[in-house]
Write a structure and sequence with these properties.
The protein has twelve helices and no strands. By secondary structure, the chain is mainly α.
Length: 240
């Protein structure tokens, strides 16, 4: 009985440590989640739909992309496929964290697997192996609560703003993508420009017979494949 009580208290202690470690993530999510809530309202989602999207998807970049695709009139299949492609990295992060985490129940692993965002992964990975499952869950829960809560706050804050301002918030979606792109351009300018050019060319061709959503996804994937193929050939020639 005493060992069980000690185990429970240890798990609670690690969960609390995880929450404490995740507080900076919660504050970092605040402005992004509030903006998402505002944009969701401007895009035409209801309050319940906006909050449910954050609760069920819990992936900032994918949610912003989904709003953009909704604004373009993309279908559900296009949005789901694009979300899968964009979030494919989560499979790699989950596999990596699983190698260093303590063995736990399937329920625990499923829970922290769902809560595993880029930021949760980064913070959890700093802990020494074996990483406690309750620690990962604590980090993820505080991040999750922040994202969902501030999404709702952002959405309902839009009801107090002038209609002209909330409608113009749709422009902020494109401004956000530009802001995310600028650091990459500064770091790997030539690569980004070449990929953007290839993507634009392929998209122009694909749009002749595909809808906007499928055209963008196909162009993006093909641009990366073509560029990578060319880059590998150049590297091989230099070695020879």
């Amino acid at each position: 009985m005493e060992s069980a009580e000690t185990l429970d208290s240890t798990e609670i202690n690690w969960f609390r440590r995880g929450i404490a470690a995740g507080i900076p993530i919660a504050f970092g999510y605040m402005p992004v989640a509030v903006t998402f809530g505002l944009l969701a309202g401007a895009t035409g989602l209801s309050g319940i739909e906006a909050v449910l999207m954050s609760m069920l998807v819990f992936a900032g970049a994918a949610q912003y992309m989904a709003l953009s695709m909704m604004a373009l009139g993309s279908g559900a299949a296009e949005i789901i496929t694009a979300t899968f492609i964009l979030n494919f990295r989560h499979l790699l992060m989950s596999a990596s964290i699983r190698e260093r985490a303590e063995s736990g129940s399937k329920l625990n692993r499923a829970l922290y697997g769902f809560l595993l965002t880029d930021e949760v992964f980064a913070v959890s990975s700093t802990s020494e192996a074996p990483i406690r499952t309750h620690y990962i869950t604590g980090v993820g829960m505080i991040a999750y609560g922040s994202w969902v809560g501030f999404t709702g706050i952002g959405y309902f804050a839009g009801s107090f703003l002038p209609e002209l301002l909330t409608e113009s918030m749709a422009i902020a979606l494109y401004a956000l993508f530009i802001a995310l792109l600028i650091p990459s351009v500064k770091k790997e300018g030539k690569v980004v420009i070449r990929l953007a050019f290839l993507g634009a060319v392929f998209n122009a061709v694909f749009q002749l017979w595909l809808s906007t959503g499928w055209s963008l996804m196909s162009a993006t994937i093909l641009a990366v494949i073509v560029y990578e193929g060319i880059d590998q050939k150049v590297i091989r020639r230099r070695k020879t």
